Amino acid sequence: MISLANKNALVLGLGKSGLAAANLLRRRGATVVAVDEAKTPALQREAARLRAQGIIVELGAKEAPGKPFDLAVISPGIPWTNPLVQAIQSRSVPIIGEFELGYEHSLCLNIAITGTNGKTTTTELVERLLTAHHIKTLAAGNIGVPVCSVVEQTKELNFLTLEVSSFQLETIQFFRPAIAVLLNITPDHLDRYPGLREYALAKGRLFMNQQPFDWAIIQSEALDRLRALKVSVPSKVLTFSAHNRQADLYLDRSLLVSR
Q: For a designed S-S bond to 223, which of 23, 25, 116, 218 qualifies (C-beta 3.0 to 4.6 A apart)?
């Protein structure tokens, strides 16, 4: 965990994730500047609350603040092609996402779930299964609860159950799930990615920091796609499929079969 005390931090984007990041940074002792290109009445109300905490807020921003920063935190909805992001990047300021910031300051293991379809349902299911078996967990991430907003609660948890989007995976550095789940990969978000290849590579980043003792649970068809792209999965792999009978778990009519 990197200390944030006395660091100069920039937050780009003041949606739910950006607000959570700004608040966490301030609670941990950073000097925070938060900017957003919009200037809606709702944002103005949030800006007033942030300013009351000593955070500098600039709405309707057309360019990045000129002061030096130790790090910048961007919201998942902001692409790397955004002019403000490119301006900060050109100044060699380290850039991470809100998801990564929250992970770095969490104090428990995590189960991370991604995929084009089904990740919210699966995240909710895993959270409820664990809770029913008295394993302490919370669902967070792309499910609508920023990781930064639950950091202080993680010291009481066994696991965070995380829904992870490809946008969030673009800005990870050290994020390592103890159990990583990839449900499927089909064409999506092609307004942000040049093609399916780039989208799949973003999804594949879920596994990049895993260790040999971690687990990856991957749809066999998605694993084939990752392997074709030379994506390494360094952890123990368990495959599943509704069609491929060579998977470790497969569906045979209404039966779930384990090889």
A: 218
Domain identity same for 84 and 128? no
The Cα 45–Cα 192 span in angstroms is 30
Given a contact cutoff of 8 angstroms between Cβ atoms, the answer to whether 67 and 8 are in contact is yes
Flag whether 115 is in a domain. yes
**180 three-class SS:** strand
Domain that includes residue 233, residue range: 105-258
The 10s digit of each residue's pLDDT in 19-72 is: 999 999 999 999 999 999 999 999 999 999 999 999 999 999 999 999 999 999
- Asked if the structure places residue 99 within a domain, the reply is no
Gap between the Cα atoms of 59 and 154, Å rounded: 32
Residue 84 and residue 12 in contact, taking contact as beta carbons nearer than 8 Å: yes
pTM beyond 0.90, yes or no: yes
CA pair distance 72, 5, nearest whole angstrom = 15
Tokens representing 82? 């955004």
